[in-house]
Amino acid sequence: MPRYAGDAAALRALVRDQEVHRDVYVSEEVFQLEMEHMFPNSWVYVGHDSQVPNAGDYYGTTIGTQPILLVRHTDGTVKVLHNRCPHKGTRITSETCGNTGKFFRCPYHAWSFKTDGSLLAIPLKKGYENTGFEQSHAATGMAPVRHVRNYRGFVFAKINDGGLDFEEFFGESLSSFDNMIDRSPVGQLKVAGGVLRYMHNCNWKMLVENQTDTCHPMVAHESSAGTVVEVWKKAPPGTKKPMAVEIIAPFMSPYEFFENMGIRIWDNGHGHTGVHHSIHSDYSAIPGYFEKMTAAYGEKRAKAILGENRHNTVYFPNIMIKGPIQLLRHFKPIAANKTLVESWTFQLVDAPDMLLERTLMYNRLINAPTSIVGHDDLEMYERAQEGLHSNANEWVNLQRLYSPDEAGQTNVAVNGTSEWPMRHQFRAWTKFMTMGM
Amino acid sequence: MSMVAEAPLKNAVPTDQELIDFVVREARLIDQQRFDEWLDLYADDAYYWMPLEWNQTDPRLTCSLMYEDKLLLSIRVERLKGARTFSQKPKSRCHHVLQTPQVDSRDAAANSYVTWTPMHYVETRLEEQTLYAAWATHHLSVENGKLKIKLKRVDLINCDAAFGNIQLFM
């Protein structure tokens, strides 16, 4: 029996000031409502326009659980289309990405569509004469997602007509994208290196929350990062610290480090850790990079760009970016207890290759299904997904450093171990879940 | 479960059978979780490479599932012993089925031998058991009368699929 469908009050009751009900993680009904309401009401990340550089290039992905396509139209703009034939629903594209030429052609009955989705041709079209076909859903072709925004290469889409416009939804949080992109001497990123895809048997929000959870690294990652620190201690004195140790060891930083790093809160569930410093602050300089940045921006501006050490920026609902290492994690919901995590990496155009090499090393050491750090995290998520079925306590506690006046505050920097970002994400969750309900 | 200790090579140049025995022995050490002995099979400058892309040629500017030197491999082995390695409580187990390794190239002058081994690998923990199909390519050389791995490359047939945890070694 439905408990939440069409009942905004019941959904709001799942989120309290300092705790959330387990059904936000375990209920399939709540999950379906997220797909029907919360995702379509939000600006959701689709992909990067460097994935579709030429007219006819496409990339297939999802918004929530709905299949969509990012495509470069003949006029040079990017479009987002629902990836189904308007005839029988057949997925149009065969590969995840490729080039379709001037039009899409359904492999089932050869209906064809321009790259903006409009219907081009149907074989034996006279069979539809005098049937009122012009008024059908099918006649409009592959339905485009109407609200699309390409922000400096990063493409977002909102399925529903209502809700906030792009600027209102993201506000000041776009500064994290700006900083990541400005790290290229020519202000341009390119998807590079391949994508790591890691299946998680847990709710997608556990991953989102974990991006700003700074009280877990030194505990959950003691097995991986702690072992790195111990093994590295045995290296002969004077040995140059390898890149891999530079990457993993900071996960073992003490609580004080994370308290002082700070967390910033923006509107609509967005926010970032690493206001003052982060685990990425002390990486070795890459030869030749600073010189290129100085030549491009001048020394003062170059120092300002590279001086930002934002750790994880969460964009509600389901991505996180790491500006200092040009990495984006996409938490794709599949079911209440199943999430596909895609970790994408970017090349800074006109910067030394060594930066991409380090980014890729970070990605495989931390985000791969073969990563020991990833193993630590997934074990915790899966145990939580299981433990939440206990009836002894139906609530998840998000109370750390709670302050009664925090709701409504924006662009504030707080203690780096606060669970404010998680409470904040759930305030946004309630807002976009019940919007228009 | 007993396995004879590694025999020294009879001659300076390994026979095909010695190369084959070495590859089979490596898989057995993994299956029996004798990871310290397993690590000893790797040369100090060795790499263990598991590509992410089909026919991948570059481990540096293309991402891999694993591209690890001996330091990182030794960290994995130490981690498996850890008291707070929660993703290994309970521990995973694994099982290799190898096709007979084929000697693809032997170059005694360059001290370089390459074998190719199709295999099925099963990893299991709690109620989950996952089957992987792969090809292992071993680049071997002789050091102090013993074979050592310079590079082990594991190409999964579905290298670009979304996997859950892969916690041991293929």
UniProtKB/TrEMBL annotation, chain A:
What organism does the UniProt record list as the source?
Answer: Bradyrhizobium lablabi
Entry annotated with the keyword Coiled coil: no
Name of the featured protein: Oxidoreductase
Gene3D superfamilies this protein is in?
Naphthalene 1,2-dioxygenase Alpha Subunit, Chain A, domain 1, Rieske [2Fe-2S] iron-sulphur domain
Residue ranges of every copy of the Rieske domain listed in the record: 43-157
Q: Which InterPro entries match?
A: Rieske_2Fe-2S, Rieske_2Fe-2S_sf, Ring_hydroxy_dOase_asu_C_dom, Rng_hydr_dOase-A
Q: What family is it from?
A: Belongs to the bacterial ring-hydroxylating dioxygenase alpha subunit family.
Annotated GO molecular function terms are: 2 iron, 2 sulfur cluster binding; iron ion binding; oxidoreductase activity
The reply on keyword Lipid biosynthesis is no
- What keywords does the record list, in alphabetical order? 2Fe-2S, Iron, Iron-sulfur, Metal-binding, Oxidoreductase
